[in-house]
Amino acid sequence: MTIYQNLIAGEWIGSDATKNINPSDTNEVVGLYADGSAEDTKNAIAAAKAAFPSWSRSGIWERHVILKKAGDEIMARKDELGALLAREEGKTLPEAIGETIRASQIFEFFAGEVLRLAGETIPSVRPNIGVEITRDPLGVIGIITPWNFPIAIPAWKIAPALCYGNTIVFKPAELVPACSWAIVDILHRAGLPKGVLNLVMGKGSVVGQAMLDSPDVAGITFTGSTGTGKRVAAASLEHNRKFQLEMGGKNPMVVLDDADLNVAVEAAANSGFFSTGQRCTASSRLIVTEGIHDKFVAALTAKLETLIVDNAMKSGTHIGPVVDEKQLKTDTDYIEIGKKEGAKLAFGGEVLKRDTPGFYLQPTLFTEATNQMRISREEIFGPVVSVIRVKDYEEALATANDTPFGLSSGIATTSLKHATHFKRNAEAGMVMVNLPTAGVDFHVPFGGRKGSSYGPREQGKYAAEFYTSVKTSYTLA
Ligand code: ADP
Q: Which fold has domain 3-247+452-476?
């Protein structure tokens, strides 16, 4: 089998490889992907550092052409790349194609954005002096990504980093190297000068750690677990380096008595269970007022009965497998914890067997949960959702905000008053009214507060806040 290698200083290198396994069919090896070392990472950082002076001063048209070519190729290959994504991560083929389209759109957006780079000219408070405010690229950016969006998250970090003139060392999650390799191959062939984008696949504890320990990495953008996020933060402070963290969520969706029942059930089913609940914006707490509680639970349970859990590549599958055995164990452990804590298992909870051997889990709904239970406080990252019954809107809002996280927060209501109040008072970076808490646009800011995120927002023009450093110049005229 071919080994898909790391890209360091414009050369494909590496002979040690790890198997990439399909979670829908563990007999299938998606490919062999290089297992980079700390030495490889150091070489990649050195290459990115060497490429920076020239790339940071490259013309915006050169950057536009490369970003646009990459966006166009990803779109032209959306079915093939979507299938690769579905096979390595386990989300359904339509979800995976959707994510691939989104990655293309992100490159197209930044291909446009690079042509609009601008600064400000401002009069000084002193006579005969002009003030200019411009943005410089940071330097070498370390990109560390998780497994749950194998093409979109790399795209939303790589595209702005290149757009604003940075060079990159990119380390994807161990479980999903294939989509990352494909994007890097596309950008390399699109004409990026050598060393501008380096790919080092390998272990977090080796490759990731080598990035954290390097004084030559000027910024790290990280999406992953809270534990690793804290390591990124501590190591970055040590080097006085800029960093941006996107970590967990325990996103609430409030359902009020006056909600449109269909809208509420569709939004809850989508954001709780689609993509196998493996989205940091998934709703894992459904906070439901008394008057609609029983009707809502009955309708959501009826909806869950219709959802097909099967091989991600099979047409008709609504929910693919859990990503791997370790995550499946986490999910089933939390299901046991929920039962022991006294929540009522209203639906699911069983590991399933399908035609192909994989990590299949029923969508699982707990009712009679409290907001203090571990299943309501800790991120599970699987298709496991708890329903918390509350008296009224005020209690619902207080419960929604009573969490260490603050990524996305949703409400289903037909009341303009409550929707408006909720948008103002939800302690989250993103608020959804009558929509799933997951599923966001590619051209507007993404991020949260409290334990979910740290640093500037990602995506859209707000990405400049992280990928550039502001400079103020004074000139005596
Ligand atoms: P998850 O539990 O979702 O896998 P992780 O935080 O472990 O979340 O992984 C997110 C990314 O962080 C992955 O690319 C992983 O390899 C990387 N990573 C893990 N440990 C470290 C570390 N010590 N230093 C840097 N990166 C790491």
A: Aldehyde Dehydrogenase; Chain A, domain 1 (3.40.605)
Indicate which atom in ligand 1 lies nearest the CA of residue 173: 14
Q: Is 250 exposed, middle or buried (0-12, 13-18, 19+ CB in 10 A)?
A: buried
Helix (H) or strand (E) holding 223: strand 219-223
Assess whether pLDDT exceeds 90 at residue 88: yes
Q: Is 54 in the pocket of ligand 1 (CB under 6 A)?
A: no
Q: Which of the residues 88, 95, 246, 458 is marked catalytic?
A: 246
Over residues 38-57, mean pLDDT: 98
SS3 state of residue 474? strand
Would you list the DSSP string of 5-52? PEEETTEEE---EEEEEETTEEEEEEEEEE---HHHHHHHHHHHHHHH
Rounded to a whole number, what is the distance in angstroms from the first to the last CA of the chain?
Answer: 65
Catalytic residue list contains 280: yes
- Please report the pLDDT score of residue 197 as a whole number: 99
- Tens of pLDDT, residue by residue over 134-147, are 999 999 999 999 99
pLDDT digits (tens, 9 = 90+) for 151-193: 999 999 999 999 999 999 999 999 999 999 999 999 999 999 9
pLDDT at 254: 98
174 is an active site residue: no
DSSP-assigned letters across all residues of 113-125? HGGG---EEEE-S
CA of 3 to the centre of ligand 1 (A): 23
Q: What is the mean pLDDT of residues 387-395?
A: 98
CA of 106 to the centre of ligand 1 (A): 24
The CATH architecture assigned to 251-433 reads 3-Layer(aba) Sandwich (3.40)
Expressed in angstroms and rounded, the spacing between residue 473 Cα and the centre of ligand 1 is: 39
Band (pLDDT 50/70/90 cuts) for residue 15 is confident
Q: Where are the domains of the chain?
A: 3-247+452-476, 251-433
